[in-house]
Amino acid sequence: MTGPERLLGSSIAGERWSRGLPKAELHLHLEGTLEPEMMLALARRNGVDLPFPDVYAARRAYVFDDLQSFLDVYYAGCSVLVEAEDFAELTIAYVRRAARDGVRHAEVFFDPQTHTDRGVPFAAVVEGIEAGLAEGERELDVSSRLIMCFLRHLDADAAMATLEAALPYRDRIVAVGLDSSERGNPPEKFGAVFDRARAEGFLTVAHAGEEGPPDYIRQALDRLGVRRVDHGVRCTEDDDLVARLVAEQIPLTVCPLSNVRLRVFDTLEEHNVAAMLRRGIRVTISSDDPAYFGGYVGDNYVQTAQALAMSGEEMRTIARSSVLASFLDDTRRAELLAEVDTYS
Ligand code: HPA
Ligand code: ZN
User: Fold this and answer.
1) At 185, which CATH number?
2) Which of 7-21, 103-117, 185-199, 242-256 has the lowest mean pLDDT?
3) Is 259 in the pocket of ligand 1 (CB under 6 A)?
């Protein structure tokens, strides 16, 4: 029996082992790391009215029925982010927190339309986030990449205009993605935008199969040319799709605590991430919007391992997949794979 096999059974040592496992976080909305304390402080600093009088009221509001009920609260919280320094503070706080969970590399989403539609300049958003990521790299040796998401509840023309606004920042944004309200907003709605993004040299990812049907996962692959699928958990409703994900080793960025909070699964014990792993799908684990869903990536690893009786070697496979599925250069990827493989 290897170290982690033995340790995961005994919970305190097993918890510490899973949390410390070197990993990449590939599904993380920066705006979803806005803790109530920072939200209220920024609201005061920027003179923004919030529906929550204090942090307790904010946390009490974090009870969700589905994705949309979460998004309504999440977009309200975003209104406190105004200046570049707000985005920088948010970002460095995330990197410091993630580093304590063994995160060695993070690929973070941001939603520019949530901010530019309120009059915040695109430059303030990107430059603030970039400053926070650069500080995280200097201070903690956490590498990072930036992924710009289009809001799928808005129309394709708005997404195209956002893509055009991002072109001057082309060398600082590795990929484009698709988030927000999934039902009724299929990936194909953004086919032309993603064609243009790929022609401009962006990689592509998309949220698909969180609340939407398996066909949305197919559209993301075939119409948007995605390199990874964000969530993708509803793939298990379609055996042919599962066979394809296994054959092509398409990574899924699965967020178990998010899925329970947004009622995709009733309990963590019923989550399908362990079953998907055991069927040969390249699953990874991330936290999505940790300030709202009750846990950062380490909590997702620890609680998922416990709820689904996953072994240390299974958790190591997931961490390894997170590095393999990243958009890192070969040198850093090899360095981090060695860290995962030699971790004990
Ligand atoms: N799903 C879709 N859109 C989002 C999410 C999510 O979990 N978080 C922030 N935007
Ligand atoms: Zn997400």
Assistant:
1) 3.20.20.140
2) 7-21
3) no
Q: Rounded to whole angstroms, how far apart are CA atoms 126 and 174? A: 13
Number of domains in the chain: 1
Distance CA 147, CA 199 (A): 16
pLDDT score of 322 more than 60: yes
Closest CA to 143 of 106, 174, 198: 106
Name which of 306, 225, 226 is nearest 273 in CA terms: 306
What is the distance in A from the centroid of ligand 1 to the CA of 232? 13
Q: How many whole angstroms separate alpha carbon 282 and alpha carbon 324?
A: 10
Pocket lining: 289 vs ligand 1, CB cutoff 6 Å: yes
| pLDDT of 2 | 47
Range of the domain at 190: 4-342
Q: Can you tell me which atom of ligand 1 is nearest the CA of 67?
A: 1
Ligand 1 pocket member 299 (CB < 6 A): no
> Which residue has the least CA distance to atom 3 on ligand 1?
180
Q: Which residue's C-alpha comes closest to atom 7 of ligand 1?
A: 288
pLDDT digits (tens, 9 = 90+) for 59-92: 999 999 999 999 999 999 999 999 999 999 999 9
Average pLDDT over residues 128-146: 98
Q: Decide if pLDDT at 216 tops 90.
A: yes
Å from CA of 107 to ligand 1 middle:
15
Q: What percent of the chain is modeled with pLDDT above 70?
A: 97
Distance, CA of 335 to CA of 344 (rounded, Å): 16
For atom 10 of ligand 1, which residue has the closest CA?
180
